[in-house]
Amino acid sequence: MGLNPSEVINLIKTKWDEIHSNTNVFRYKIANEEKRFVNNKYYLQLNPNRGVKRRTPEQMENISQPFDKNKFNFCKVSKDEVMFHFKQDKGMILKLLSLFMNKIYSYHTVLINASPINKYHSLLCPFLEDCLPQIITKDSLMLAVKFMLMAENRDLRLGYNSLLAMASVNHLHFHIFIVENDLPVETVVSKCIPVKGPLYRFENTYPIPTFCFEIGSVGTKIDDVYKLLEYFLHKNIAHNMFLTRGNSVASNNEVLRILIWPRTSCLHIKQFDAFNIACCELSGWLPVYSKLKLCLLYFGIKIFIFFF
User: Fold this and answer.
1) Digit-coded pLDDT (tens) for 119-150
2) CATH code for the domain in which residue 168 is found
3) DSSP tag of 130
4) Active-site residues: which are they?
5) What is the largest CA-CA distance in the chain?
6) Which of 38, 92, 180, 232 has the fewest CB neighbours in a 10 Å radius?
7) Does some domain include residue 161?
8) Average pLDDT over residues 4-33
């Protein structure tokens, strides 16, 4: 069955709601979490359950660590966690596949995240049955870009954490987020400095050094994005990535922004009670797991903005 672009978000929401209401595969239920905004910019969200009920992350040793079938991976999840399978048809059309199909060719899968950050938090798993490690390939990057362009909805975001950059499962996946609020990385325009071709960097007034690509349509710019990611891989540099719609630097048009952050490797196991910085936090969306830390972070950011 073909799926038109405008139907993607509705399909994700419908399937997620069904699983959330009718099964027990979520580690906790998502209710009305407290939210705060700092200067109408930074988005803080309280989710105490994720801090204590999520699956224990694994220790990662290298950003090029091979896939290990004996460790947790997404081939082991319950069938109730599967929202849908699909393959890319011509153009921007998704072809939905039966959940009970004969697995005779590569396909992509959308799963719930059993420990969601927010409502509709899901996982896009390219070529699920191929058992690829958490290393972006050119094909998976192309799929992520097409998925974003096809959806035609500003609420949709995709996130990626490499190994040693807070990825907790070594099986290729992107995080799917549906968030109604604008995020800081989507509106930085005047402070984008050209680097080369379609690559920009954010001026130092943004709290974290950020690379930014603008994508109007699928084309040669994907090669430029992948070259940067490939460089990080060859140099063993951990990195995070966030795909979102935002304001164009060069025009008044809305474009797809691909934000990339190289970072120091995190060699320790992700701690539940720590402030773990990954793709969401780098975008200006800060999930917090205790009421005390929510208040401390809220006033801490206010003080930072006041002085800097």
Assistant:
1) 999 999 999 999 999 999 999 999 999 999 88
2) 3.30.428.70
3) G
4) 173
5) 60
6) 180
7) yes
8) 90
